[in-house]
Amino acid sequence: MRLQYSPNIRIVEMPCSGTIDHRVILQAFEDGADGVFVAGCLEGDCHFQRGNLRAKKRVQAVKKLLDEIGLGGERLEMYNLSSAMGPRFAEIANEMTERIRQLGPSPLRKEGGAA
Amino acid sequence: MIVAQQKNIKDIAEMVADAQKVLLAGCAGCVTVCLAGGEKETEVLAAALRIMRKLQGNPLETVTYVATRQCDPEYIEAMDGLVKDVDAVISLACGVGVQYLAERFKDKWVVPALDTKFVGGAVKHGVWEERCGLCGDCVLHRTGGICPIIRCSKSILNGPCGGSQNGKCEISKDVDCAWQLIYDRMKALGKLDKLMEIQMPKDWSKARDGGPRRAIREDVIIG
Ligand code: SF4
Ligand code: SF4
To answer: Could you say which DSSP state residue A103 is in?
Structure first.
């Protein structure tokens, strides 16, 4: 299956969404990302049982922190989908890209553009 | 252990508003265990402060370090080199650690990132509870291992009071009545007779009421 999704997305592979750490997300923003989305497995389907639920809690915490520090929590989102859901991935990628386009480039970067 | 929680990040940023470069000092002791000031929290706070300051057009440089303990002089000596070229130090230790840093680094602006809450332990992952009021004269042998000083809202020594309802304290339906717990445990141990002994008023001069305290072990002091 060949699917098109926004070419501006950079994928960082993690062994499980449960390994996502506040620091990794913040680093992505410091390195110039305009937005970040965490793609975890469907709830109830985690190979490590509750990794995706942990990821969800951490993403919520970082969203709150981003609001507090002025970058805006809406630049970060968590989605749940299985690795067999290619079309859904493309849809999410485009949906998130559209959201970030509307928000504009990250104020942490001088010039505009997507990351 | 000592249980602490991070202050609001805006308040922390405000404390170091004048600084261009700060050292964030974590502690590998109690505050690592209660997830308030260990390596991860130190790095997250550093990143958050950098982002915040960059957005304000006034970038902040950060250095991080995690001491084995901030409440022992030998572990904070190792920070001498790092402290030299920063404008301020943010300590993520309990109030003891902050004071030790302020004492050692006399010409530096040292500020607390945490609010030191109480002495207690974890009841489940992410939830900590107060267990000891540091009274200086432990009575747990008389109360079945349950502290009436800190777990009874009135700190009474001959409980329960009239506010004990269905095992809960009158202050909240979420707070167990310590004296109900004490009674149940003593009963299970077959030691209810011990509860018949009236406890005399406590000597509070051994607690904080007697002024700042000091503990001494003569046999280990040399010179
Ligand atoms: S400085 Fe405070 S938090 Fe760190 S080990 Fe000592 S008592 Fe615990
Ligand atoms: S009786 Fe005093 S020392 Fe013992 S646990 Fe309670 S407050 Fe702490």
So the answer is: H
Contact A108 B51 (CB under 8 A): yes
pLDDT, residue A4, reads 85
Q: What is the pTM of this model?
A: 0.93
For atom 6 of ligand 2, the residue with the nearest CA is: B147
Chain A residues touching residue B47 (CB < 8 angstroms): 23, 26-27, 30
Measure B81 CA to nearest chain A CA, in Å: 26
First to last CA, chain B: 31
Residue B126 belongs to some domain of the structure: no
Looking at the structure, do residues B112 and B160 belong to the same domain, yes or no?
Answer: no
Q: Are residues B8 and B94 in the same domain?
A: yes
A33 CA to centre of own chain? 10
- As for the ipTM of the complex, it is 0.91
Residue numbers of the domain that contains B21:
2-118
pLDDT > 70 fraction of chain B, expressed in percent and rounded = 100
Residue of B140, B141, B143, B205 with the most ligand 2 atoms within 8 Å of its CB, for mutation: B140
E strand residue ranges, B75-186: 88-91, 109-112, 114-124, 127-132
